[in-house]
Design brief:
Elements lengths: L1 H32 L5 H7 L13 H17 L14 H12 L3 H14 L5 H15 L3 H14 L6 H15 L51 H15 L6 H15 L2 H14 L6 H14 L9 H16 L6 H28 L3 H14 L4 H13 L1 H5 L1 H4 L18 H13 L27 H22 L4 H5 L32
Helix pairs in contact: 4-5, 4-6, 5-6, 6-7, 7-8, 8-9, 9-10, 10-11, 11-12, 12-13, 13-14, 14-15, 14-16, 15-16
């Protein structure tokens, strides 16, 4: 039995060897055969590339083919024409319309929503979205209607229902903003010229708004979940964004600008008033846009310590309003505000005077004092400027100091201007005058004077020059003793690279003769 199993194992082992070799050979040939084409496959691939004229048609054949197509079209009854086929979802849309006509708006809203969701690729979706929003609007569900109108305008910007959608959004925006009208000048906060940062209350304050925007709404379906006024502004903005040439575009923009003016958001209000003046120059709200626009722009001014661009622009707007509308009711008020603007500009110039005085720049302060006097002679700051010029000195009051030439500022090694103080410079100049060298003598060269990038001459050994100078000095001293004309500078034996400064008068009288005692120690 054991011998039989052994023989079967050896037989299977002997058969397994050739099979393994065949498998290895096939695996080795597979990479070489990749992309190869057999003869029968090659003929099949090149079959279509064989040159032939079976599909070539001449002019007569093309004309006959067109005539046959026209004959088939005339014989057709037109029931299968794409132009006369009903749109996908028409039957369901008609059924929903019947429900809407029966004033069952809740069921109609659901039906139109189903049609719009089911047939997204069909043109029927445009009408279904519009009717869905109309059904919600008829139920006073303004939040849902606003959302669907927004989807309609986003997917179909040039929808044929644009006029109706603009009217609906205009009413929704007014409801959410508590039915606002165009703001009056008395309803807006007034300018405090004494302290522009703290505004004065409005002469005719509007009624307080409703609940805060961060409190959610879960009960009233006519209002959105959060921020009812903000959504009202968004509804009005959608009107001129999607229908800028429509009849309600300028009205919506005027309401938004008035809303921001009442709320005290003067920067946004100024932006919308400016947009109204530039975009709708023929609007009936143009006069209010100029009047209120100049007011809110002036309200954006924060004082003399801040940028004064808004002050200048407000002045230009008020002057333009008086020129365009000379018979306006608020004419006297505009003139008073222009005078107050001039006073505010004079205050800004006086602030520059105070600034340069704190920096001890009298000349710059005098320049601004003269500007205040020349530009605003009737303002109280002009009298302050005159008194300040007298305090600076007669040369500044007469203007002589301003006409005097100014020395160019000194520059450092890297070309930067070095700060100079007038008091310190006068003190240093007086201190140098007593020790200054004679006019004929040359001043000692400074280490940083001249061009720093210029190649300097070759330096010599100072000890060699000193020894040579000592020899020359001894000869001159002997010659001077003979002639009786000795130079005290040469007596002291100064080195050539550091010429002496002039000493005070009488310094030679205090010098004493040095005696060498017998002990060998020097004693004065």
């Amino acid at each position: 039995m054991t011998m039989q199993h052994t023989s079967q194992y050896e037989r299977s082992r002997s058969q397994r060897g050739p099979m393994a070799l065949c498998v290895v050979a096939v695996w080795c040939l597979l990479p070489l055969l990749a992309g190869c084409v057999t003869p029968w496959e090659k003929s099949a691939l090149l079959k279509d590339n064989t040159p032939n004229i079976t599909k070539v048609q001449g002019p007569t054949e093309r004309r006959l083919r067109n005539l046959m197509w026209l004959r088939d079209r005339e014989n057709d009854d037109g029931s299968d024409s794409d132009s006369l086929k009903p749109l996908a979802g028409t039957d369901e849309y008609v059924a929903a319309t019947d429900i809407y006509k029966d004033e069952q708006f809740a069921e109609a809203q659901k039906a139109f929503k189903k049609v719009a969701k089911k047939y997204k690729k069909s043109d029927i979706r445009e009408d279904a979205l519009f009717m869905q929003a109309e059904a919600a609007y008829q139920q006073d569900h303004y939040a849902k209607a606003h959302d669907v109108y927004a989807i309609l305008l986003r997917e179909y910007p040039s929808t044929r229902h644009l006029d109706v959608v603009s009217e609906r959004l205009f009413k929704i925006g007014r409801v959410w903003l508590n039915f606002p009208e165009v703001a009056k000048l008395g309803e807006v906060q007034q300018v405090n010229y004494d302290d522009p940062k703290h505004k004065l209350p409005a002469e005719e304050p509007a009624a307080p708004s409703g609940k805060p925007m961060y409190i959610p709404n879960f009960t009233n379906k006519a209002e959105p979940l959060f921020d009812t006024p903000g959504n009202g502004v968004a509804a009005l903005q959608a009107i001129w964004m999607n229908d800028p040439t429509g009849p309600l575009a300028d009205d919506a923009m005027m309401l938004v600008a008035s809303h921001h003016a009442r709320k005290g958001n003067f920067v946004e209000s100024d932006r919308f008033f400016q947009m109204l003046r530039e975009t709708f120059p023929n609007s009936p709200h143009l006069q209010e846009a100029f009047l209120l626009g100049s007011h809110v722009k002036l309200m954006s001014y924060q004082g003399a310590e801040y940028e004064g661009k808004t002050l200048t622009e407000a002045e230009l707007l008020k002057e333009s309003t008086l020129r365009l509308y000379p018979n306006i009711e608020d004419k006297d008020r505009l003139k008073r505000e222009l005078a107050q603007i001039d006073e505010a500009k004079a205050e800004r110039e006086w602030g520059q005077v105070q600034f340069w005085l704190r920096k001890d720049k009298k000349r710059a302060a005098a320049v601004y004092c003269n500007q205040v006097i020349a530009r605003f002679p009737e303002s109280p700051f002009a009298e302050k400027a005159r008194r300040q010029l007298e305090e600076l000195g007669p040369q500044y009051a007469s203007g002589a100091a301003l006409l005097a030439p100014v020395d160019p500022p000194k520059t450092s090694l890297f070309g930067r201007a070095t700060p100079q103080n007038s008091s310190n410079s006068t003190k240093s100049a007086s201190a140098k005058q007593s020790y200054a060298p004679e006019a004929s003598a040359e001043e000692a060269p400074s280490r940083w004077s001249g061009n720093p990038f210029k190649r300097s001459p070759k330096m010599t050994d100072p000890f060699e020059e000193a020894s040579e100078d000592l020899e020359v000095r001894d000869e001159e001293t002997r010659g001077g003793e003979a002639s009786g004309k000795n130079d005290p500078a040469k007596k002291r034996g100064w080195l050539p690279w550091s010429p002496p400064r002039r000493l005070p008068a009488g310094s030679d009288d205090e010098a004493q003769e040095v005696e060498a005692p017998a002990s060998g120690k020097t004693k004065l």
